[in-house]
Structures are given as structure tokens and as C-alpha cells.
Specification:
This protein is of the alpha+beta class. The protein contains eleven helices and 23 strands. It has a seven-stranded mixed β-sheet, covered by helices on one side. Strand 12 and strand 13 form a beta hairpin.
């Protein structure tokens, strides 16, 4: 762990934090909470303010968030609940535990009678029930899975949890728990069925703020494990439970795993309460290892609307660089990236690989407001110092697809509404090619040298196949040719690369 703080000139007390939230693609309910994590275009869309002021995060987090559809692993592959987890979680507002007479339950505590008998409104119950109690599952191992419709990493676990519940139907029950209302949760289950051609066989409590107060949390997914003996056995994230730990839980044994400890992203990451914020001049921290209590996220630190800090939590090395470089080099995408790293598997995270805690990193930098314009350049410099890699932007000659005029003098154009400029075509093409798990040379960037000022139909702008696009552009006096051009590229290499 690297930590750098410098006190002296006072940093304003009113450092503000803001961040974006994960919203699942495919029609998930929009996120309506305030404070928290991020989403990525490589499998997610973002609601809330993004780094670039639009509704999409930049096209840079593909390696960590490759949401291509995969077969559900067999139960023998259940080496961990996180094997195949979507490497992303989302923060929510802290649970309100201020209600008089309610104490948060700890590991080893028996479940109080009022919790066993608390009426829970549910949806998607196998018998069509609208209200149940936790006592309906008494005598079994119970997993309370606190989730939200906009939390893609929560949803990624559902097929595995469903299979596990089916295999251990006599001894194990999953109860999803959401504080969202029926009008948000029920349509989600309908969309899930439509997308996956199968009904999800998991019941969810809804509007369940009362039970949340007994198991307070900041980030989801949040798992509370209740043993068949009626005691709290474990409080975990999705990453901590594997086959051996699950077997222990079935036998009412407390597994030897760390308890999930949520981290408040409203203040600098991993900062102790005794650090004087009003004297903080500069703060920098770089940590190796996955932390389930903070989720995978990104958020700025602001003072009076000026962004002079940023945190990134539970990212791959590649994504740390990608987030940073996108702010310096707006044309960055994976087709504008060159990897000169001997072991590329060490810097990217694929959803298909087993969970490896050591491949995740968290980083934060806060600088004085006076040098806020240099924030991302300083971040890039620090990443080069901390990681052992060298990231920079330099000219490279690469193969491109070039839009040119086709020699005709008449250029057709959409004169009425619905037309889009050629810049939209370039942006959409490079966005569409920006999926996958790493930089890849077969993604050829599309550039414009036609100086075409007319408008194109939106149907053309959305084409992503070269031959089709070329044919569609011909009536507009345009064509696509393949050629080499010297372009700015982001190059990431080993420090000792020659």
C-alpha cells in the first residue's frame, strides 16, 4: 500500500463527493439514489453524472466489465460465488440504524423473534404468496441477499444462487431483499425472463427497509448468512464464499473468512477518522487487493464544483490507466491502444476467469484546487510510479479505415430532421468496436478525411460492418479505404520494455 498525504495549506473543508451508478443494460430500472459508484459502457450504462457530462461512462472499462452472455456454470464449477461475478458492485445510501430499540445483528447473534415473524412483502414467490416471514425458512441455512435492480453484480450471481438452492432444496434457501418498491422490482423479473428465456426461481422481499436495519450496509451485494441453528453465521460480499465455506455454513460453522466491512466513499478511501480534512493539502493512496466493502467504482472529489480529486476502487491495472487516459486523450478507445506488456493477463480482468483478489487495485488522488487542471496528468504520472508500468500518449503509424470522397462532385445530404453529422458515425463506430476484454489490434479505428459537412441518415450512422457502411456511403459521395496513418495512441508497456 502506498499512501501520500501532505498537510500545511488548508484544503477546503467542503470537499464534495459525487459519483455515478451502475445501471444494467437491457432495460433495468434507472438508479435514483445519490451518492455512489460507477458504470461502464462495456456492459453497463450509467445514470447520473458521468465523467464527461453525458449519460454514458467513457468507453474504457471493457476489461473489467465484459458482459457477454455465457453459459451458466455447473454446480461443480461453484468454486466461489464470485467466480464469474461481474467484478462490479454498487453503493447505496447507508442503512438507517437510528430507529429506537434496533441493534444491528453481529456474527453469533441469534435472530430475534421480531425478525423471524416480521411480515415481508414479496414478489416472484413460487406459490404466488404476497407476504411471508423469515420463519417460513426456519431450520434451513438462509441467505439474505440484499440487492437492487440496478446492481449488475448482484444480478450476475442469481443463476448460481438459483442452482445452489435447487441442489440443496431441503437445507438452503435464498431470499433476495430489496428496499425498492413492487413497481420497480416486479417489472425487472419480467425483463429478466424475457432476456434469458427462463423465469428466475428466486423470491424477493420488496420495500424491505425494516429488515435492513438489522443488517446495515453501504454497498450491495450484501450477504447475511443465517444458520439452521438460527444464528448469524457470516456477513459477506459475493467474493468471500466458495465451496468449502458454503459446506461449513450448511453445518452451522462460522467460516474463516473476513466479515464484509463497507467503506464510505463519501470521504477519501481508507482514510482514518483522525486525519484532519481541513488541513489536507494532497492525498494519494494505492492499494492492491479486492475490497468488497467499497465496490467497483469511480467518483470525483469536488470543492465548489471544481473536480480536484478522483477515486477508483477495485479496478484492474488496465482500467486504472484507461479511466485516467480518457480524460487526457478524449479519442482513446481500445483500437487506439497499444499494449507492450509481456504478461497481459496480469493487467486485465476477464469475467470468465477465476476470481483473483490480487488483480484488483484501488487508487485515489486529491490535489489542491489551484492545480485541478493537472489532476489527470498527475494521476497518470503516479500510476506509472506505483504500478511498474509505463503509460503514455505517443504517435504511432497504424492501420485505419479512412472515409474519403469517392471522386463525385454531388454529395447528397439529409436536409430535414433526423440527419446526423459524420462525427456521429465516427463516434458510434469506435464505440461499437470498444467491447471486449483488452486492447486488441484487430479493432481498426475509423477516421474522417472527407471534410463532409452534410448530414447522414441515422441508419447509416449505426452500421458497424465495413462493407455495408461503404456501400451505404457511396450515394453521399463517400467511400472507405484502408490505409496507414500516424495517430496519437495510448501505449502501455512494461518499465523495462525496449
Amino acid at each position: 500500500m502506498h499512501v501520500f498525504t501532505r498537510t500545511g495549506q488548508a484544503m477546503p473543508k467542503n470537499i464534495q463527493t459525487n459519483s455515478t451508478h451502475i445501471k444494467e443494460t437491457g432495460g433495468a430500472a434507472p438508479h435514483r439514489r445519490k451518492n455512489h459508484v460507477f458504470g461502464s459502457r462495456a456492459g453497463f450504462r450509467v445514470s447520473g453524472a458521468s465523467l464527461h457530462g453525458d449519460t454514458h461512462a467513457s468507453s474504457l472499462s471493457g476489461p473489467i466489465l465484459n458482459h457477454t452472455k455465457r453459459p451458466i456454470p455447473s454446480l461443480s464449477f461453484f468454486a466461489a460465488l464470485l467466480i464469474g461475478v461481474t467484478h462490479a458492485s454498487a453503493n447505496v445510501h447507508p442503512t438507517d440504524t437510528t430507529k429506537i430499540g434496533i441493534q444491528a445483528l453481529q456474527i453469533g447473534d441469534p435472530i430475534p423473534e421480531e425478525v423471524w415473524n416480521m411480515p415481508l412483502q414479496v414478489v416472484n414467490h413460487p406459490e404466488g404468496k404476497e407476504t411471508i416471514t423469515l420463519a417460513d425458512y426456519k431450520g434451513k441455512l438462509i441467505l439474505l441477499d440484499f440487492w437492487a435492480t440496478w446492481c449488475s453484480s448482484c444480478v450476475a450471481q442469481f443463476p448460481k444462487l438459483e442452482q445452489l438452492q435447487q441442489k440443496h432444496a431441503d437445507s438452503f434457501n435464498v431470499l433476495l431483499v430489496s428496499n425498492q418498491r413492487e413497481k420497480e422490482v416486479l417489472p425487472y423479473f419480467e425483463r429478466y425472463k424475457s432476456r434469458n428465456n427462463v423465469k428466475l426461481a428466486l423470491t424477493s422481499a420488496i420495500d424491505a427497509k425494516n429488515i435492513e436495519t438489522y443488517f446495515p450496509f453501504i454497498s450491495v451485494p450484501h450477504y447475511a448468512w443465517i444458520g439452521s441453528n438460527g444464528t448469524v453465521l457470516a456477513i459477506t460480499g459475493a467474493a468471500e464464499i466458495g465451496t468449502a465455506q458454503f459446506s461449513q455454513l450448511l453445518r452451522n460453522r462460522v467460516p474463516n473468512i473476513p466479515t464484509k466491512k463497507d467503506i464510505d466513499t463519501g470521504k477519501p478511501l481508507f482514510m482514518g477518522d483522525d486525519l484532519p480534512l481541513d488541513q489536507l493539502q494532497q492525498y494519494s493512496i494505492f492499494i492492491k487487493g479486492y475490497h468488497s466493502g467499497v465496490g467497483t467504482g469511480i467518483g470525483p472529489r469536488k470543492t465548489n464544483g471544481i473536480v480536484h480529486g478522483k477515486y477508483l476502487s477495485n479496478y484492474s491495472i488496465y482500467n486504472l490507466y484507461a479511466v485516467t487516459v480518457k480524460e487526457i486523450f478524449p479519442d482513446f478507445n481500445k483500437a487506439r491502444c497499444v499494449l507492450e506488456v509481456e504478461d497481459t493477463a496480469s493487467i486485465v480482468i476477464s469475467q470468465s476467469e477465476p476470481f483473483n483478489r490480487d488483480k484488483y487495485h484501488s487508487y485515489e488522488l486529491i490535489v489542491p484546487v489551484g492545480i485541478a487542471d493537472s489532476l489527470h496528468h498527475i494521476m497518470l504520472s503516479e500510476l506509472n510510479r506505483y504500478t511498474g508500468y509505463n503509460g503514455r500518449i505517443e504517435k504511432r503509424k497504424i492501420r485505419c479505415l479512412v472515409i474519403e470522397r469517392n471522386g463525385t462532385n454531388t454529395l447528397a445530404s439529409i436536409e430535414t430532421g433526423g440527419g446526423q453529422p459524420i462525427e456521429s458515425l465516427i463516434k458510434h463506430w469506435n464505440w461499437a468496436k470498444d467491447n471486449g476484454t483488452e486492447c486488441y489490434p484487430e479493432a481498426i479505428p475509423l477516421i474522417d478525411e472527407s471534410h463532409y459537412t452534410g448530414l447522414l441518415p441515422k441508419e447509416i450512422v449505426r452500421i458497424t460492418e465495413t462493407e455495408r457502411l461503404n456501400a451505404a456511403l457511396i450515394p453521399y459521395g463517400l467511400k472507405i479505404t484502408e490505409a496507414e496513418r500516424e495517430l496519437d495512441m495510448f501505449v502501455l508497456s512494461d518499465k523495462n520494455h525496449r
